[in-house]
Amino acid sequence: MNKTQEKLVAEGLMLPLMEAFYTIQGEGYHSGKSAFFLRIGGCDVGCHWCDVKESWNADLHPPTEIQKMIDQILAYPAKTVVVTGGEPLMWNMQPLTDSLHNKGMSVHIETSGAYPLSGDFDWICLSPKKNNPPKEAIIPKANELKVIIHNRNDFKWAEQFASQCSSDCKLYLQPEWSKAKEMMPEIVDYVMNNPKWNISLQSHKYMNIP
Predict the structure, then answer these.
(1) CA–CA separation, 47 and 190 (whole Å)
(2) pTM (two decimals)
(3) CA–CA separation, 169 vs 206, rounded Å?
């Protein structure tokens, strides 16, 4: 990355884009709806079960002008753009969200909350991770809390953040993919006994889509 690119990245006019694709949202509250995904490179949260570890090193993903991203999105009938990662809040999201809103898009983010919130989002999906917990300021702003369940201790972790979310925040427990068969009965029992929670599945994996 040269100095000009570094400046544009700092300003949020370029971002380390890993991939961009139009698909069906597979998880959480908006599961089953079409959306264009922007996967931004860079993450230092370091979950050992992460299924997109290739996103961690931002240097592997060349800075891309946000206008190029928008041009790509406009080639599809997308109405919703999901910004994910990696951890997208490592970067300045304000220019991207402003530009997308100017095009009439609804803009969502999927984040661990480990970095301060930047940008204006219509939907914030907070998925807290133990290695680098979310900043307190983002928790009450979450529209959706999605906690990955890898073992039984994760239920306590989920409740810790549910108690800090707003009263209208949607609450989801999602089995970590490699532990789904083992943890699903536990999650089913937990949700039946704690009906404020919902179950999220990675339905895109069942549909064999990105």
Answers:
(1) 23
(2) 0.95
(3) 26
Q: Which domains does the chain have, with CATH numbers?
A: 3-44+52-207 (3.20.20.70)
Which residue in the block uniquely carries the two structure tokens 């409740």?
Answer: 159
> By C-alpha distance, which of 137, 91, 140, 100 is closest to 122?
100
Task: Please write the tens of the pLDDT for every residue from 100-117.
Answer: 999 999 999 999 999 999
Indicate the residue type of 143: N
Nearest residue to 82 via CA among 128, 22, 32? 22
CA angle (160, 164, 169) in 5-degree steps: 110
Distance CA 112, CA 131 (A): 10
Q: What is the pLDDT of residues 114-137, one digit of tens each?
A: 999 999 999 999 999 998 999 999
**Six-digit token string for 95:** 């220019």
Cβ 161 vs Cβ 125: under 8 Å: no
Contact call for residues 1 and 15 (beta carbons, < 8 A): no
Q: List 80's β-bridge partners, or say none.
A: 106
Nearest CA to 117 among 143, 92, 152? Answer: 92
